[in-house]
Specification:
Strand order of the largest sheet: 1-2-3-4-5
Largest sheet: 5 strands, antiparallel
Number of domains: 2
Distance between the termini: 32 Å
CATH architecture of the largest domain: Roll
Strand content: over 45%
Oligomer: single chain
CATH topology of the largest domain: Nuclear Transport Factor 2, Chain: A
Radius of gyration: 17 Å
Structural class: mainly beta
Number of strands: 12
Shape: globular
Helix content: under 10%
């Protein structure tokens, strides 16, 4: 069932997917950006939006106490209700996201290509002071985001075609490293 609140739509969908039937997070009013029950929490860490579309990075603490990160995407339907359209994530990414690398690295999950692109994830900094990440798509579309608390989040109204190159820059604007993502 769609909702007028995009965050509530995500809470309801992730609750059905991640929590056992006896431990459901109760639906209802949202308490700021955190919904809690017992030892489990669902937090909204970052948000990006375009008219009728929103992307969020959320973290969920599972029953074993591990953090599970998701990049979630919602769209408004013809009645202006928010519909859950997709999520990407992979378990407990912790302090070293993605592959074990000695380089600065961004580990992204996303989808909606080519017309409803969204992606987000964690940046492994390795003391390189990554300040922003730029994505360069095969078709020339470029989008970028500032790193906040080790996270980046992207949403685009421009078509995005694979492959996508992620470029990581420090706070002086110097390119630190680049690598393919979402391929």
């Amino acid at each position: 069932m769609a909702h007028q609140d995009p965050k509530q739509e995500i809470i309801n969908r992730l609750t059905r997917l991640l929590v056992s039937r006896t431990d459901k997070i109760p639906a209802g009013n949202l308490n700021e950006s955190v919904q809690e029950t017992k030892n489990k929490t669902l937090q909204f860490l970052k948000e990006r939006s375009l008219p009728g579309r929103k992307a969020y990075i959320v973290v969920f603490e599972n029953e074993q106490g591990h953090e599970i990160y998701f990049t979630c995407y919602v769209e408004q339907d013809a009645q202006e209700l928010w519909q859950f359209r997709g999520a990407a994530g992979d378990g407990s990414m912790g302090s070293t996201p993605g592959p074990v690398m000695e380089q600065a690295w961004v580990n992204l999950g996303g989808g909606g290509m080519p017309d409803h692109f969204y992606a987000g994830g964690l940046v492994a900094d390795h003391d390189r002071h990554v300040a922003r990440v730029r994505l360069v798509a095969k078709n020339g579309t470029i989008i970028e985001d500032q790193v906040e608390n080790g996270l980046v989040l992207f949403i685009s109204e421009q078509p995005i075609n694979l492959p996508i190159l992620a470029e990581l820059y420090d706070d002086t604007g110097a390119l630190i490293y680049s690598h393919k993502v979402l391929s």
